[in-house]
Design goal:
Elements: H1 9-16, E1 28-29, E2 38-39, E3 44-48, H2 55-67, E4 75-79, H3 86-93, E5 101-106, H4 107-116, E6 128-143, H5 153-162, E7 168-171, H6 177-189, E8 194-197, H7 201-210, E9 215-219, H8 220-228, E10 233-237, E11 263-271, H9 276-291, H10 295-301, E12 305-306, H11 311-332
Parallel strand pairs: 3-4, 3-5, 7-8, 7-9
Antiparallel strand pairs: 1-2, 5-11, 6-9, 6-10, 6-11, 6-12
Helix pairs in contact: 4-11, 6-11
C-alpha cells in the first residue's frame, strides 16, 4: 500500500463467533533434546489491539477458526484496545518468545504508529518475529445516504471544497487505518474534512449509520454488510482494481484521483526470538488456510484479499510501509491526540 499508490453488526457478530473452539493436529518440537516440551501444549492467544467488530478482529477470528483443523490447542482471541493499538501491541512485544502469544497486527500498529507515537517501548521491526502477511483489505469510502443521497467521489470533493471542514469523517481512533487513508485522500485531492476519532470501528459505525457523522473510509469487512443492507452508500474503493466481492463499486482512482491507492493490511507476528520452527509451522498453516477454498472466498466476499507470504517478505513489507506512511503522517501533520 502507498499513500497514492500503494444494528449490520449481526453479520460481524456471526463472523466473530467463528473462533473459540478446540484445535487438533501435529505438534512441532520447540527445541531439540529430551525433556523439552512440544508446541503447542496449552492455549495460544492472538492479541487484537482493538475493540471487537473491526477488520482486524474479524480477520483474526476467521483465521483462528480455520486453525482449529490443524493445531492441537485452543487459539483465543484477546481484544486489548486503546491508544491507537499501541497497548495491545506492547503486550505482545514484551511477552515471552515461546509461541503462546501472537499479535494480529495491521498497517496502523506496525507501520503508522512508529511515526505517530514518539515514545513507543518497542520497535515494530526489531521487537517482533514476522509470521506472515495475512490479507490486504482495500478501504471503502462510504457516506450516510441521508447526508449524500447521490453522486460519487468527484461530487464529494466538490462539496468538501465548497465548504471546507464542514464534512465529518469517523475512524477507529487517531492513527487508525481509516484515519490514515482519509489523510492520504485529503492530501491527494486538496480537501479538508473534520476527523472524529472513536474508540474502535464498531462505535464509529453505529454513529455513521445513525447520522452523527457523515462518512468514513475504512476496510471492507465492517463496511460491506451495511452497504448491502442499504444503511450506507459506497462511493469508491481505495485499491487499484475493483473488489471481486463488490464489483459495482468503482475505485477512487477511476473517479478523478489518478494513482490513488490506500489499502489496509493485516499480518501475524510473534515476539522477537520466537523459535523458528514455531514461526515456520504457523506460516505454513496460515498460507494453506488463506489460499484454501474455505476461507479465501469468504474473505473476498467481505472485501479482503488473502496475501500470505514468507516471514522475510513480511518483514521487508513492514519496513517499506513504515517509510511510506511515515511520510503521510509528516505531510498531514497527524497527531495521536
Amino acid at each position: 500500500m502507498s499513500a497514492m499508490r500503494s444494528p449490520a453488526i449481526s453479520r460481524r457478530a456471526a463472523l466473530g463467533g467463528l473462533l473459540l473452539a478446540p484445535l487438533a493436529a501435529p505438534r512441532i518440537a520447540r527445541a531439540q533434546g529430551a525433556g523439552q516440551g512440544a508446541w503447542p501444549d496449552r492455549p495460544v492467544r492472538i492479541v487484537v489491539p482493538f475493540t471487537p467488530g473491526g477488520s482486524t478482529d474479524i480477520i483474526a477470528r476467521a483465521l483462528a477458526a480455520e486453525l482449529q483443523d490443524t493445531l492441537g490447542q485452543p487459539f483465543v482471541v484477546e481484544n486489548r484496545g486503546g491508544a491507537g493499538g499501541t497497548i495491545g501491541t506492547e503486550v505482545v512485544a514484551h511477552a515471552p518468545a515461546d509461541g503462546y502469544t501472537l499479535l494480529m497486527g495491521h498497517i496502523g500498529t506496525l507501520a503508522v504508529n512508529p511515526s505517530l507515537y514518539r515514545n513507543l517501548s518497542y520497535d515494530t521491526v526489531q521487537s517482533f518475529a514476522p509470521i506472515t502477511l495475512a490479507a490486504v483489505v482495500p478501504n471503502v469510502m462510504v457516506v450516510n445516504p441521508r447526508k449524500m443521497p447521490s453522486g460519487g467521489i468527484s461530487e464529494l470533493v466538490a462539496m468538501a471544497k465548497r465548504r471546507p471542514r464542514s464534512l465529518t469523517y469517523g475512524s477507529g481512533g487517531n492513527g487508525s487505518a481509516a484515519h490514515i487513508a482519509m489523510a492520504a485522500f485529503c492530501l491527494a485531492t486538496g480537501v479538508e474534512m473534520e476527523h472524529i476519532p472513536y474508540r474502535g470501528t464498531a462505535p464509529m459505525m453505529n454513529d455513521l449509520i445513525g447520522g452523527t457523522i457523515d462518512l468514513t473510509f475504512t476496510g471492507g469487512p465492517p463496511i460491506l454488510p451495511p452497504v448491502r443492507a442499504g444503511m450506507l452508500r459506497a462511493l469508491g474503493v481505495s485499491s487499484d482494481h475493483r473488489l471481486s466481492g463488490a464489483p459495482d463499486i468503482p475505485t477512487v482512482a477511476e473517479q478523478g484521483v489518478p494513482g490513488f491507492e490506500a489499502n489496509q493490511w493485516y499480518g501475524l507476528v510473534a515476539p522477537a526470538n520466537t523459535p523458528r520452527p514455531i514461526v515456520d509451522r504457523l506460516n505454513a498453516e496460515c498460507a494453506r488456510i488463506l489460499k484454501g477454498e474455505k476461507l479465501r472466498p469468504r474473505l473476498e466476499s467481505e472485501g479482503a484479499e488473502a496475501a500470505p507470504g514468507t516471514p522475510e517478505a513480511f518483514r521487508d513489507f513492514i519496513t517499506a510501509e513504515r517509510a511510506r506512511w511515515g511520510d503521510v503522517v509528516r505531510r498531514a501533520d497527524l497527531k495521536p491526540d
